[in-house]
Amino acid sequence: MTTPLKISAATLTKLAKLGIRHRADLLLHLPLRYEDETELVSLADVEPGETVQVQGVITHNEVLYKPRKILVCRLQDKEDELYLRFLNFYPSQIKLLAVGRQVRAIGEARIGYFGLEMVHPKCRAVSDKTQLATSLTPVYPTTAGLSQLTLKKLIANALEVLNPADPLPEKFRHNLNLPGFFDSIRLLHNPTTDIAACTLADKSHAAWRRIKFDELLAQQLSMRVHHKERSRRIAPALPPQGHYTDSLLKILPFSLTKAQQKVYAEISADLARPHPMQRLLLGDVGSGKTIVAALAALQAIENGYQVALMAPTEILAEQHYLKLTEWLSPLGIVPVWLSGSLKKKDKRVAAELIASGETWLAIGTHALFQEQITFHKLGLAIVDEQHKFGVQQRLALHAKGKQPVAPDEKSSEPHQLMMSATPIPRTLAMSYYADLDVSVIDELPPGRTPVITKLVSDTRREEVFERVRAACMTGAQAYWVCPLIDESEVLQLQNAQETFELLTDTFPDLRVGLVHGKMESAEKVRTMSAFKAGELQLLVATTVIEVGVDVPNASLMVIDHAERMGLAQLHQLRGRVGRGSAQSLCILLYHKPLSELARTRLKVIFENTDGFVIAQQDLQLRGPGELLGARQSGVAMLRFADIEADEDLLEHAREVADELLSDYPDAARTYLHRWMANKHDYLHV
Questions:
Q1: 3-state class of 459 per DSSP?
Q2: CATH of domain 452-608
Q3: Hey, which family's this protein in (predicted)?
């Protein structure tokens, strides 16, 4: 029996950087790509653009210093010659490629200054007796100080020492036509030459499909377990009392849409249960999520519990504060405002009101979860644009509401309502949000008119000026959005301050305002209030107005340097107009030349107004990592599966997960241990 290799402490540290903490983790450290070292190509047969393996003798070795330091070697076989060029090299490489050495090199051939050449090929010294590889050579993800050779030895040893059981019952393997787990692992680490290389590269080979299915199944199992665990945790039961909620509905100048009524009913039912709600409320731009959040807040307040509403930016938090103050003050409920920019004395007053329970509703930014803020009796935490907060931030707010119920009993925790105006594509919801309950507001309030979108080149800027002037002179209001505040020579973008000065000069007969993220909070509020009141006709702004700003009379928006912005941001900005009955227009002012990605983004936003369609396109362009903000969200990203390309496997994994948990609990545990042992425990909070 093969004995396990001893691994030094230094190597263990390097392996941990790759997420490898147990010997079994080596099995799932799968190749990034493969190199074909199973055959040699004579130099006379090498074609430019091909990646090939060649062998010959070094007949020339020279370090050149013009135009920069490079190592150039000439490799010859019996028929022809080829140059090897290195821009970065070590003394050991000069020694390896000494004149007279027989060398085997693999790389992409191309025509260069010296003729046919390879730049930075992989080289090794050989003899006439050196055998060719019998299988494709895997290339693994690695880290500094950990060589491919070391990884290959460790993985080969793990394959010999370990023989992991296949946790997937035979009936599922048969129904889904999947190969065995260990057979798949072994093949991917040592693929034979008869396997089509393209099926390995695009991960369509049956072995890759088995690994991707297992990863998706483990993810689904983890989400199901987290979902079920909530039913064992305690939260205050907050049944609808109808006192404040009914009063608010009576004084509103509008009626709830059917979609709003439906999602509020779902949230209301969740709040009434003695287990913590974790619901994600999705609604396209302008669909009316805030009123639903207000009703949820009132239901908690009716039951004697406090509510915290947190937003990622001051301007969005302020919009919520102003709107909810307007709605709730007639009911005798006055929200408290808390943000980082408040003066020390005002912060202290707000903190005292929250701690004493004198205020029922606290609205603010991340300042709400600072250590010195204590809630008297927090029953509901509402997080807007939840994907813009890190997991630790959401956990910190959540922890504010933990209350001891009785000695030796579990502590009670607050309900959570997360909101997002960025629609989640179906596959993303199935995969990364499967542990949450999701409500969708899928209709806009009546009276909303679709926004017309126009793409206009910067060369026609003067025409755009005239369009803005004409709109403002007829009584409408307009936004002019700039992507940067500070000067940037590299990007050469118009900054907000310069644009404000330019437009003030261009439109001496218009009242122009400016708002950006670096302004004092009070100044921002004054400017936004003046614009909302119609005292300003044109507002120059950065993307701080992306969410939450509601000015029905604003019917024109110009987005400068639109090619620099992402799809979600463009859609959010466009949603600031079209909130009244007048026909609205959004002009995307772009600068040439356009990259292929920018051209695609502008085409998508021009052709679509449905946020879910745009989100789906965004997922295809950017992938789930960027869309989820995964770097700071704590979500365990998929390593091998692609939720778009592998949607069929995702569907199967969803179906199998429930049956595995109920009928094969040991298999479910094996999956979770194998795939999720090193992942963050919180996943979604």
A1: helix
A2: 3.40.50.300
A3: Belongs to the helicase family. RecG subfamily.
